[in-house]
Amino acid sequence: MINYSKKQSINFRIFEGENLDIAYKYGILVKTMWFTSFYACILPIGIFCSLINVALTYFFDKYLLLRRYKRTPLISALLNREMVESLEYCPFIMSLGSLFFHVLLYDSSGVELFPDFLAIILTSINFIFPAWKFNDLFCNVNPKSNKEPPSYD
User: Fold this and answer.
1) Hey, how many other C-beta atoms are within 10 angstroms of the C-beta on 122?
2) With a threshold of 0.90, does the pTM exceed it?
3) In 3D, which of 104, 99, 103 has the Cα closest to residue 118?
4) 20-57 b/e with 16+ CB inside 10 Å = b?
5) pLDDT higher than 60, residue 6
């Protein structure tokens, strides 16, 4: 008689899902957002294309996460926080791109560049006063009152 359990374990290893590299997925998302922010002033349709790209990526990755990938290793909340903080650079990159392409394409003088310089100054305030400090000031959230997320073990 054939030992089916041994063959079954071999089949499980063959058809086991791939590992999910969440840091790589975050990197692609941040790269897309920065690229879109920089070129938004000369290619406004890129914002719409980027929005479609992010939405499709979300739905495909959600399907693959629920159906195909292996259970992911636990990652630190620090990675999530750093990726969200890196998305805060998008307005600054957008204003730099606008200034760059106004100078490059239109050979503008100082008067026409005033809105771009103003945008750079205003978005630079985010580096001095990060968004999480504003959130802590205006939204009094007690982290101990939040319930723990459910465990799926």
Assistant:
1) 12
2) no
3) 99
4) bebeeebeebbeebbebbbbbbeeeebeeebeeeeeee
5) yes
CA 79 to chain CA mean position, Å: 11
Q: Distance between CA 5 and CA 24 in Å, rounded? A: 36
Mean pLDDT of 18-26: 80
- Tokens encoding 102: 């106004």
Give the tens place of pLDDT for each residue, 51-97.
Answer: 999 999 999 988 888 877 776 666 777 777 788 778 888 888 888 88
Q: Any idea which residue has 């890196």 for tokens?
A: 86
Place of tokens 């890129």: 46
**What single-letter amino acid sits at 72?**
T
